[in-house]
Amino acid sequence: MEAAEVSNTGEVVTFTTLHSPPEGFRSPLHIALVELEGGARLFCHGEETRGVKIGSRVAVENVDSVFYFSHMGYADRARMFWRRAGARGEKVAAISKSLVQGLFKGRSRGQE
Amino acid sequence: MTLTAGALDNDRVTDVHIAGVGMTRFGRRSESLPDLIAEAAQLALADARIERPDAIVIGAMNPEEFTGDGNFGSLINTHLGLSQSPALRVETATSSGIAAFYTGFAGIAAGLHRRILVVGGEKMTHVPTPRVSEIIGRSIDPHERRYGTTMPALAGLITRAAMHKTGLTLREISQVAVKNHANASRNPYAHFQEPVSLEEVMESRVVADPLRLYHCCPISDGAAAVVLSAERTPVRVAGIGQGSDTIAIRYRSDLTSFRATQVAAQAAYRMAGFGPERVEVAELHDAFSPFEIISLEDTGLFAAGKAGRATLDGLTALDGRLPVSPSGGLKARGHPLAATGIGQLVELTWQLRGEAGSRQVDARVGLVQSIGGLATNNWIVLLAAGR
Prior knowledge:
Largest interface: A-B, 25 and 30 residues
Largest sheet of chain B: 9 strands, mixed
Radius of gyration of chain B: 19 Å
Strand order of the largest sheet of chain B: 3-2-4-7-1-8-11-10-9
Order of helices and strands of chain A: EEEEEHH
Distance between the termini of chain B: 24 Å
Oligomer: heterodimer
């Protein structure tokens, strides 16, 4: 098997908070199933699930071979677009794209 | 025996009938597992009026870990005083009871034996709860288990996805537990005999958000047995089917229904030659209350998206259009793993024979569903009264 590069951001498929976790895990235990951009699905731990919904954008980080998810606010998402945009000329396009997507997602996901 | 082309075209050669049934009370029991199994087996053999079956099939999910017993087929046939009847043990996680029943069914249908005792049992209440969770949790995919998932955790993930996708509500889910406790209060074999209110269910402590304690089945001890026969009896096995899915739930395209149930149901209906419209009573695997609603739709007993509302409207209550789990279900009758599926068959046999006492419903065709693991290995059995 070969290692494959995957995105470190994705969408929450579903999540739960377990109040009687097995031995070796702290309680409460936040668990999410996350679908990365590209389709790979991972189980992740998280610090909290406050504000998380099905469909929420999350960043996924690998710490000592355990995946962790963290909720991405608008500030995080904007920073990502700036970083991705790179050259100054692309920044305007990235910002406007981000704003449009934010508006669109805010509307479609605001009804849960 | 000469097989004609016509016989080969059929799904099976010999019709299989239920000649006798028996079960222990489910709950916290002080007896040993072999003693519990013997109690159920002797009741079923007496009910069938036979002393020695041609063979014995035993369902047990994990006696090695729960009670330290091994070589389980031989342990049990010897304990029953039936060491001359060949015995084997069958396992498909939490649906092991129906897996044993299937093995017995196949033995008679194929003409290998005329009368087979099928018995399932489990004893767990003497083991501390975290250890029980860990042992049952070994039926989960290793990657998913590494994240601390237990069966309630996976059920919580599935419940949230279902509520998001289909609009299933906590009230509908909670009504399953209320209905099943009410049924169990009429069942002397049930683990819990007390009814519960909708408020008590909805306000019980959170186990795996959004699932609460009263949405989860208890840890129970118990055993149940049936005698299968090639000779005609009042209850015939009309159909049986197995369905499967990936052990890892992250590989499933749809979390809100169980392919393993759908495939098993299609196979059982095909063998029976009729569909869900003939089913008049069902025993479903409500290890977690939302599973009853998902299962009602997976089996075609209700259209997709309709079972939650139907439950709230009382259509699945004892006096409803389709009584579901008159025994009290896993939630209230209890869930001694391998005993559960056979216990469901015992209940439906009593129902079809008109022997179910104060919880008797009017039915000629019944459906049993059993879920193995997190719906990795599921079964459907259809029983029919008369011919």
